[in-house]
Design brief:
This protein has one domain. The protein is 19% helix and 37% strand. It is built from 5 helices and 14 strands. Strands 1, 2, 3, 4 and 5 form a 5-stranded antiparallel beta sheet that branches. Strands 7, 8, 9, 10 and 11 form a 5-stranded mixed beta sheet that branches.
Amino acid sequence: MFAAVRIIGRLALPLVMGVVLAISAGIAQAGDAAARHIIGFSPDSAYFAFEQYGTLDAGASDSGWSQIDIIDTRTDQLVGGKPILVVDETEEATLTLEQARAQAAAQAAPILAQYAITFPAEQAASDKFTFPGETVAYNDISRLEQVSQKWLSPLHGETGISTIQLDEILAASTSDCSASFATTQQRDQALQGEKAGKALGFRLTLHGQDGKPIKILHEDKTVPGSRNCPTSYSLSESYELTPAGRPAVIVVLVQRFSQGFEGRDRRFLAVTGQPR
């Protein structure tokens, strides 16, 4: 509720309601905005898994796709070095969303069983107006990008974190993504330095109850090409787990927006680690 109140304070109510109505009405024309499904933790908090899925906006193809990330929270690295991804990007694709999700789930099942990733993930904070579990209507993706926030305040949990802050930064890239940067004065002031050969990255900072930074959870040094020249990042939600006798683990889901075939695309990135 706290996040929702802060969002409404920044927006005209008709805009917020427009997004809500478009999603609830189930508009057939959907952009490539991933929805996510949280699978959970292993009991010892060493592993976390989630799925993101959607329908490609690739012109003639409306192919369904599904990606499952299984992450070692001790290293913040994907198990096996890459996600489980089921997608058909050909224009003749007939893969439905249900088929893609079923195939990805079947591939992930042995790994999830190996690490006993069945423990429920307790949500500590969320921006409800990111609609992470919904397939967002095509016309609302860019508006969603504009209103998504750069901070979250966990309302409960045992980590002692008062605020999770996201800052957009410039980082090295194999692609020159400078054309994808917004040209607003605020963005120009935040992204100082030579932009050629750079891409938009992000930094996540955790603040304690006294408001002071306690840890940089993540800071991009390079931006992989798989992010497709991001146009912005924002925070969706966070999860926490503190197993008996083990340190607490936090997972922060970050929304990454980029320019797709028919408009903005949304994907999720999970950043994991110990909060202290």
